[in-house]
Amino acid sequence: MRDEAIACCLDGDPFGALRVLKGAAPAPERDEIWRKLLFYIRSNALGIENYTRTDLFGSGCVEKAVDILISRRFKLRGMSWLKPGAQGMVKLKVLRYNRTWNDH
Questions:
Q1: pLDDT tens for residues 20-43?
Q2: Running DSSP on this structure, what letter comes out for residue 78?
Q3: What is the C-alpha separation between 102 and 82, in angstroms, rounded?
């Protein structure tokens, strides 16, 4: 049962995993853990579905993008930023990076 539920999640089918898990009754001492697992799968269903749609695993690529797009600009010598100005600058940097600057 466990392997079946994991296989469903790895295939991007959280609702299949829920069906598998709901079809089996947990031992009474594991009831609370069981409910938490079902809640976790329901709460993260979209992320589980998207798991198979990307080859990006881990947060390293996201952190590097933040470093390249944002941190390097904001950490230049003599720079200081307030939150509203930084948010505006991030939006402009993303437009430029995505090559959608001319659309705006």
A1: 998 887 888 888 988 899 999 999
A2: T
A3: 27
